[in-house]
């Protein structure tokens, strides 16, 4: 059940120079939110900026009705959001999306995230650890050591955590997908979950297809309404003809898709 | 206090409708608002056959507005009549189907189908800027509007409203074209053709390069056009373009609109249209207005 509520800001943490974590009291949203869902925030009560900002959910504290989200300041909307203060009320719409990550009792899963795309994977890993006996291996890729966020948090919700940096300043040098591939050669996971930059998602998608490993990916696209009416956040469906492409929508069918269903 | 209006033969409990393309076929809003509180719903632009729409990115936010190039993605009229219409009929609100086509034949075929359905009216879309054929291609001239509207009029007995594009030199020409062809009303404005460029990649933000501008940024243009159009024709005007508050709606009505639509405002908050209904009522109380119809077109020009 989607709701539009005023959620009190309980806590703000500055994780990096331009990355913030907000904890908000949003009981109605938390009640039905699942890993993979997102929210849309009206950063200020004004017509400029006009549209809400779609932001993924990082963590849910179900018993306390607390929702946490992390965002990077990228433009005027997120700049204004970063200036909001503890105690203020945020206008939040959520939980949004229909396609969410599938929580099941897997034997082993690989969760792979790149950069700020790691954030929506935390609640997934946490719920898999809490609710199932799944062996969770998380792969996180960053450009360099300075950009690594939440290492301890992800460590606490995984059986194994592999961190890679493009420049080798921390962890293993290279792309996280290469580490995932090496491990898959030894033991094939039941599922791969992915979120991150497009080149990473493409590499994961093509590897999952090649090895026939079920894979769920969380996608993003410019959007307006967040509830399935503006039809802005289109994603091309796989297997639709070149001359007559067909589209799903991130907020309507996604944001989590089976990798085989979409062309990215 | 009377808020009910009769727009081109469509009876509505209040002058507030929601604009085509911003409200789907209503379903998505049921979780947030009571659809019975709306005067009417202009459905998503619907064509004879399903349309897949344009390549993404399809939307881009601009100053107090947004550009879109959805490309009329819709499931087609057959799907609408079997799935969405029965749903919409559950509510006490006027159902106005926005109809689009890429040729006169298509408009006429679609109108024949719509004529058989239990709907309150048809909004003929001669103004979408985002498709290669049809729509705005017909909507920019007196002759173009008159031609399509006349052909549709021959097969459609229901109230017919023609939705006009602001991408013209004089809005009065297409407005007269609609009236002379027998339309019962006109609605305006559709979006203004615009463009926005990513200065880092030196490419337009939208995959389709250009798109329609909507939102509060376009409101003064829309108010001006509603005024000019309503001066040119006797048929009623459904006014829209950047309405997010009751005050905005009142401005359109003073300019000459008999009813209004909330469009992009629906993306700000799912209950924005209801806030507009309430805002109109508050204005009526404040100025002791007994009948909302009494303010239509009463702007005193300087």
Description:
The complex is a heterodimer of chains A (264) and B (302). Chain A is α/β, with parallel strands linked by helices and 264 residues long. Helices cover 20% and strands 35% of the residues of chain A. Chain A has 6 helices and 17 strands. Chain A has a 7-stranded antiparallel β-sheet with strand order 4-3-7-1-2-6-5. Chain B is of the alpha/beta class. Chain B contains 9 helices and 16 strands. In chain B, the strands form 4 sheets. In chain B, strands 3-4-7-8-9-10-15-16 form an 8-stranded parallel barrel, surrounded by 6 helices. A 4-stranded antiparallel β-sheet of chain B has the order 5-6-14-11, with no helix packed on it. In chain B, a hairpin with a 2-residue loop joins β5 and β6 (65-68). The chains are: A alpha/beta (264), B alpha/beta (302). Chain A binds chain B through residues 1-4, 42, 47-52, 91, 93, 221-225, 227-236, 240, 244-247, and chain B through 21-24, 28-29, 31-32, 44, 52-61, 63-66, 68, 70, 73, 215-216, 244, 264, 266-271.
What descriptive keywords fit this protein?
heterodimer, A: 264 residues, alpha/beta, seven-stranded antiparallel beta sheet, seven-stranded mixed beta sheet, 6 helices, 17 strands, globular, B: alpha/beta, four-stranded antiparallel beta sheet
Strand order of the largest sheet of chain B: 3-4-7-8-9-10-15-16
Give unreliable regions of chain B as ranges.
Answer: none
Helicity level of chain B: 25-40%
What's the total number of strands of chain B?
16
What's the main sheet of chain A like? 7 strands, antiparallel
End-to-end CA span of chain A: 29 Å
How would you spell out the order of helices and strands of chain A?
A: EEHEEEEHEEHEHEEHEHEEEEE
Beta-strand content estimate of chain B = 15-25%
Query: What structural class results from the helix and strand content of chain B?
Result: alpha/beta
- Figure out the total of helices of chain B: 9
